[in-house]
Amino acid sequence: KGDPLIKPLLLITFVENALKHGIHKTNGEARAYIKVGLRDNVLLFTCTNPVVTDVGPPGLGITNTLRRLEHYYSGRYQYTPVSENRVYEVSLRLEL
Fold it and tell me: Whole-prediction pTM value?
């Protein structure tokens, strides 16, 4: 089947949001943690960052990314956003 590929820039929105809505708005030291792995043609992605305020509804970037996921990977992905204890984490499981 060859090397597994994902659609270009598919993950960039999650990383951008971690910087824009997480790290950028904190006072003092802040870190974002990004993990990407591939196991048996399944991409596992996690992006974790601190948040200062409650996370609101998905914006345009996330909405468009979710539309792309549904278009290209319908039934083959799981997107899980979690916000608790001033930490926001996005997990994506994508069957390639």
Answer: 0.85
